[in-house]
């Protein structure tokens, strides 16, 4: 089953938040997901533990994944879920190249800043290096994170221009800066267990996450055969490119 890795060598780019939002949406669509938590901060594992029985049924989190255990965990979960998702550390580490090598699709979260764009470019360079060495091209996209829904900054325009120049695919749906996307971690909640009276613009956050989930699913279906997704039957997911 496909492996989707979230990577950016710049810390704090929004990887773990993107993993949580996208994995939750894909699980809500019916895919069985295993998130391998290789982020040394273990936010996803903590979130999952806090969430307890409120966690979407089809979503499981594998804590404390390291360079030594990554291959074993990918092989173990590839056979029991529809999608393996890997959350990586936010610094250069041998784990990044290792995870990219197992990936069928890579998502590169980046805020609208030159530093995040550089972190994204590092991942893209690694993907080209892998392609040179193995002949395998791993499809990848940048997803913009923490975007202000009202103002387009020069820095953000710069990131978009850089990605266009490098011919890197950019997801049409950015992840907007929302209190709800922070609160899911601090409260151990999902966007669907939170109380809308206590979280501003929760409905907009849900809409944003759902649009993103749909777009990522469409991208996955471009590169993978996803059989009867979003149904409760066991599903077939096969890579075709
Ligand atoms: N869309 C968003 N709206 C509001 N806050 C966000 C959003 N995305 C990320 N954040 C906040 O930004 C910070 C960094 O986000 P996150 O932990 O997801 O990044 P990361 O790339 O996984 O970091 P690291 O490299 O340290 O693993 C966190 O405090 C998170 O709550
Ligand atoms: Mg992280």
From TrEMBL:
Pfam assignment, any one: VirC1
UniProt cross-references to InterPro entries, sorted A to Z: DNA_Partitioning_ATPase, P-loop_NTPase, VirC1
Transmembrane segments: none
Superkingdom field: Bacteria
Cited CDD domains: ParAB_family
Protein name, UniProt field: Chromosome partitioning protein ParA
């Amino acid at each position: 089953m496909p492996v989707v890795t979230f990577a950016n060598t710049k810390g704090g780019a929004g990887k773990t938040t993107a993993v949580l939002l996208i994995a939750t949406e894909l699980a809500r669509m019916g895919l069985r997901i295993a998130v391998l938590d290789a982020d040394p901060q273990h936010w996803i594992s903590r979130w999952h533990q806090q969430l307890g029985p409120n966690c979407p049924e089809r979503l499981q989190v594998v804590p404390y994944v390291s360079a030594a255990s990554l291959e074993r965990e990918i092989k173990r979960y590839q056979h029991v879920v529809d999608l393996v998702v890997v959350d990586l550390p936010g610094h250069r580490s041998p784990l990044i190249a290792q995870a990219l090598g197992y990936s069928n699709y890579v998502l590169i979260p980046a805020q609208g800043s030159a530093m995040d764009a550089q972190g994204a470019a590092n991942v893209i360079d690694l993907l080209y290096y892998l392609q040179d060495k193995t002949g395998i091209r791993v499809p990848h996209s940048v997803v913009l994170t923490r975007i202000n829904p009202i103002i387009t900054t020069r820095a953000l325009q710069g990131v978009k221009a850089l990605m266009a120049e490098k011919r890197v695919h950019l997801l049409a749906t950015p992840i907007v800066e929302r209190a709800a996307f922070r609160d899911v971690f601090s409260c151990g909640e999902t966007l669907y267990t939170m109380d809308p009276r206590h979280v501003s613009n929760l409905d907009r956050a849900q809409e944003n996450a759902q649009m993103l989930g749909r777009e990522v699913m469409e991208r996955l279906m471009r590169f993978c055969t996803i059989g009867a997704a979003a149904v409760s039957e066991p599903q077939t997911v096969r890579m075709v490119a």
